[in-house]
Amino acid sequence: MVRRRSFLAGAALLPAAPALAQRSPRGLWFDPTQLPSYSGTLSRWLMNPAGETDRALLREGVQIVFSPSEAPDLMAAVQPGQNLTAWGIRARSAPVVTMLAWGRASDQPATFVTTPAWFANMASGRQELEVGGVIQHPLLNPQGEPMGVILENGDVIRLTPAAHQALANRLDNGRRIAAQGMGTRRDDHTSLDAARIGPALDSLAPVPTP
Q1: Beta strands in the chain (DSSP E)
Q2: Do residues 125 and 165 make contact, with C-beta atoms less than 8 angstroms apart?
Q3: Measured between alpha carbons, how far is 201 from 66 in angstroms, rounded to an integer?
């Protein structure tokens, strides 16, 4: 279960844990560690169709969204299977957090992000690819809207929120899915923008355009 720590107003403003020693407040005008923190075990890093790493998937199912410029420091500091704590803004209706600061634990020094990823990174790939597998989670934008799926092996099929809604229960967790489109393949993982989609690679149809 993801652990969430909130800060109350007035006399209870300071956390009960030892005060954090922030480092590298690069661009934010406020202290993001006053926001709720979300801690969990890193399952994997996820890349977008352009091949940029821009989110973390925790074993607890929470997605942590950040700008690709943060990826080198994050990936050097936290490995899959280790704890990741993110301070940030959680979407109202879905388990996705826009990261404003991060650390290995909530009582250790925090690193502030340079540029928060308030909106989905829609950079696209340059190679025609295909992918298939079993759906593990919906891919969520920072506002909590489903915009594709994450497969059990970490591959990503990206859609627009409107197309995802049009496909409805065909994208339920546990269902088999396949897609074809422009993307990137790296380290045995694939991320693409679906142009054609279906239950298998031999039964693809154009993605609906509502």
Answers
A1: 3-5, 37-47, 53-58, 63-65, 83-90, 96-103, 111-112, 127-140, 146-151, 156-158, 176-186, 189-198, 205-206
A2: no
A3: 31
Token representation of residue 194? 């679906």
Work out whether strand 83-90 and strand 127-140 pair parallel, antiparallel, or are unpaired.
Answer: unpaired
The string of pLDDT tens digits covering residues 37-62 is 999 999 999 999 999 999 999 999 99
SS3 47: strand
Q: How many CA atoms does the CB half-sphere of 140 hold within 13 Å?
A: 23
DSSP three-state, residue 205 = strand
Kind and range of the H or E run holding 77: helix 71-77
Hey, what CATH class is 127-206 in? Answer: mainly beta
Output phi, psi for 204, to 5 deg.
Answer: -85, 150
First to last CA, the chain: 36
Nearest to 135, CA basis, from 170, 184, 87: 170
Report the distance separating Cα 33 and Cα 51, nearest Å: 30
**Which residue is it, tokens 């661009």?**
27
CA distance linking residue 193 with residue 123, whole number of Å: 10
* CB neighbours of residue 107 within 10 Å: 14
pLDDT digits (tens, 9 = 90+) for 63-98: 999 999 999 999 999 999 999 999 999 999 999 999
Structure tokens at 14: 């300071």
